[in-house]
Amino acid sequence: xxxxxxxxxxxxRLAALFLCLTAWKTAPASAxxxxxxxxxxxxxxxxxxxxxxxQVPLDLTFRxxxxxxxxxxxxxxxxxxxxxxxxxxxxxxxxxQLNAMAATLRRIRWSAGKEFTVVTVSINLEETPQxxxxxxxxxxxLYGRPGADRGWHFLTGDQAAIQRLAETVGFRYxxxxxxERFKHTTAVVVLTPQGRISRYVRGLEYAPSALRLAVAxxxxxxxxxxxxxxxxxxxxxNRSTGRYELAFERVLWPAVLVLALSLGAFMFVLLRHERQKxxxxxxxxxxxxxxxxx
Length: 294
Prior knowledge:
The chain is α/β, with parallel strands linked by helices. The chain has a domain at 42-207: Glutaredoxin. The protein has seven helices and 14 strands. A five-stranded mixed β-sheet has the order 7-6-5-11-12, sandwiched between helices. A three-stranded mixed β-sheet has the order 1-9-10, with no helix packed on it. Strands 2-8 form a two-stranded antiparallel sheet.
């Protein structure tokens, strides 16, 4: 009887230990939204669902790099906003995306804090403002533009705010229980000054021209030159390729119009020249009549 009781007690302790370990392992994940286990294909849970013109909820609150609670609307005033969702402890695609953003933004003549704002949000609710501050310091140094500290913000938040923001912009991610890391894709969401989704720029590398045109487009073309406006008309954004590409139907009609006007001007000049030539030849043929003295 004593042996049975001892065996039962040991079994209970082992079961309790197993439950504690399981709870400790899954507790962080349970607070991170969608979870995927071993052997699960992340592609079913990860991706970008474009929601153009959707309104981002500006009443959401996050913590900035100083641990101050700020509403999202604090970053939406009179400038387009570049939004990206990552997590700061990621040493893979997140770092590559931030590196690519800093490198691309350096090649654009506009500056964060002047013509546009950048907002980077962590999808990991366990990350702290101190970690966000360290990331901001590192990437401001890499960006190297004066005044950018007022234009590039690194935020952290709670699960409700993170999930609602991600759902609004169509950013689908999951927490992998096996690797204990987030699975996600990369994209920059370009927002209007009013907080509406204007464009998605996908990938890990961004062409400066594409990012500049996306910012100009989100500003309702108040930014940019006349050539930028013409280029946005002739080369609209192609959602299937994720690039600004020439639309031949838009190029064709202006080309036909220019050709027709050029041809018309040429014919006008040619006919005018011929008329002058005929008039001159006619005056040479007419007999000269001497003046009479009366």
